[in-house]
Amino acid sequence: MRYTETIVGKDLDSQYDILGEMEAKYEEKDVSFFNNVLENEPSLVVRVHAVTVLSEIGDESSVPFLADVMKNDPSPLIRHECSFSLGQMGLKSAVPYLCDSALHDPSEIVRHESAAALGSIGDETARSALVKASKDRSDEVRGSAVASLFNLDFLKHAAGKRQHVREMKPVELKKKRKMPHP
Q: Is residue 7 assigned to a domain?
């Protein structure tokens, strides 16, 4: 896998051609094309576009590609974009990668975004990593971790209420009244 080597490549026409091809491949939802761009393209601007499109497509097969870039790319900006995109995709398979990033990435913006992404996904398996991240030296990381823990608590609370409603007998449900509104 190649990682970010430049912000913009020297051959702008080539960069524009790739971005133009991305437009067509997005319409086709050609995940393998975008995964291939991440594997081979060293330009930050092209890589950010590829990451963004992959999150829009939301295909599970992109998680390992995004996770590899998030872990190994030298650019904190592209690692941040990967964290954000994995959160937007909402796939539980991304949780272990985001937990690792939230706790160990050298960049505070990446740790912050990874903690926030875990809250977006809302998977309880992230709780222990979020508790650790809530003690990070960075205010932003701590804040994102606490917000994500709050979201996990809310989801647990909401699931409990839904369970309670399912356990009620139909007769009880009919007896319940709605709160009057002024």
A: no
**Which residue from 5, 1, 67 is spatially nearest to 36, judged by alpha carbons?**
1
What is the Cα–Cα distance from 146 to 158, expressed in whole angstroms?
18
Question: CB neighbours of 100 closer than 8 A, spacing ≥ 6?
Answer: 71, 129
For residue 165, the model assigns a pLDDT of 47
Phi and psi at 91, nearest 5°, equal -90, 130
Question: Two tokens at 11?
Answer: 């051959």
Residue 180, in any domain of the structure: no
Length of the chain equals 182
Range of the domain at 145: 12-175
4 inside domain:
no
Q: What is the CATH number of the domain that holds 65?
A: 1.25.10.10
- CA R_g for the chain: 20
- Tell me: the pLDDT tens digits for 119-165? 999 999 999 999 999 999 999 999 999 999 999 999 988 888 766 54
Q: What is the pLDDT of residue 64?
A: 95
